[in-house]
Amino acid sequence: MPMTASQPNFDLSKSTGNAAAKPRPNTSSGPSSMTEEIKGQQLHRFHFVLLQNFSMLSLTSALETLQSANLCAGRELYDWVLCGIEFGAVTSSIGTQTQVQETLETCVQPSDIVLVGGWHNQQLTNRKLGVWLTRHARGGVRVSGLATAAFAMAEAGLLDSSSATLHWQFRDSFCERFPDVELSDRPHVVQDRRCTTSGGVSSIDLFLDLIAQDHGSGFAEAVAESMNYTTIQQLQKGASVDAPAQSRVRNPKLADAVRDMEHNLEFPLPPSELAQRVGVSTRQLERLFRTYLNQSPKQYYMRLRLRRAYFLLTQTRSSVLDVALACGFQTASHFSKCFRAEYDRTPAQMRKSATPE
């Protein structure tokens, strides 16, 4: 059952002291000179702007990383302010309500802006937010976007000369809407004064990088160790945010074929060309798909195309025909028939059910 506004509010504001325990002296086995070097540095404040249905995991991953830095240093290196477009509580991805401390109107001198996006990308753009972001970005303020917040940044023109990343489920709709923005396949991107993440724990990786910029890589490594994140961090450095099907495929030839499929959804490749690209015969390719994925190449390809159609229908305002064409279908009727066979709903019914109230 979805959570409602009648359930307890979550107070994550730093000033109330509810976010975490008071910083204590560093007791790790690392060199004591590390904390000595940062004693004289000023407090760094982040302004987190919570967008409707923001990702709670992305937000808490960022806040825990900052607080872990405070605990490792034995003093307040970082604090944060939670902001909203308007005053009041903002609903998170898990249905809880988080009260903001400031609005865009009252937050007149943000020092470091972090947008926290969620799972309804049609609610991520707002004219007031765009004007506010543009004004402060021109003034040299760093702007970071967590999860799907790259939509709001691109809408405000902040990614015109920067690459970005975001959650893999939203990449197709983002490319349809902002074709000129270069998308990276990395879990997080730091470029000049623009930072983006692909959601989830990639917020930890971004903020460890920002901590390293402020206090050195040695201190950032100590923070990662305090969070038991060192091993995961190494894995994240080599990770890709492409659709996860590739990472689950253990056979390299099959993985290459799946990658070629995912990169050619609008104009599907025939089985013979797929086989030629990966250096096997058509029969061998068929056998690989049957052995590892328990389906034929044709069936797998169709499901990839229909999955992309699902995301475009639920995340964009493109017409059903445009979605059909973008996913390799020549007619809306054929697309509707295949879509209903997979999802037990027509494209129009799926769009209606996914439209936020």
Could you walk me through the main structural features you see in this protein, from its secondary elements to its overall organization?
It is a single chain. It contains 16 helices and ten strands. It has two domains: 9-237, 3-Layer(aba) Sandwich (Rossmann fold); 245-354, Homeodomain-like (Arc Repressor Mutant, subunit A, Orthogonal Bundle). The protein has helices at 33-37, 56-73, 127-138, 150-155, 171-177, 202-215, 217-226, 230-237, 245-248, 252-262, 271-278, 282-293, 297-315, 320-326, 332-343, 347-354, and strands at residues 9-10, 44-50, 78-84, 89-91, 97-99, 102-103, 112-116, 142-146, 188-191, 194-197. The chain is α/β, with parallel strands linked by helices and 357 residues long. The protein is 45% helix and 12% strand. It has a seven-stranded mixed β-sheet, with helices on both faces. Strands 1-5-4 form a three-stranded mixed β-sheet, with no helix packed on it. It starts with 8 loop residues before the first strand and ends with a helix.
- CATH domain class of the largest domain: Alpha Beta
**Annotated CATH topology of the largest domain:** Rossmann fold
Structural class: alpha/beta
Helix percentage range: 40-55%
The total number of structural domains is 2
Q: CA-to-CA gap between the ends?
A: 17 Å
Average per-residue pLDDT, rounded, comes to: 85
What is the makeup of the main sheet? 7 strands, mixed
The counted number of beta strands is 10
Order of helices and strands: EHEHEEEEEHEHHEEHHHHHHHHHHH
Order of strands across the main sheet: 6-3-2-7-8-10-9
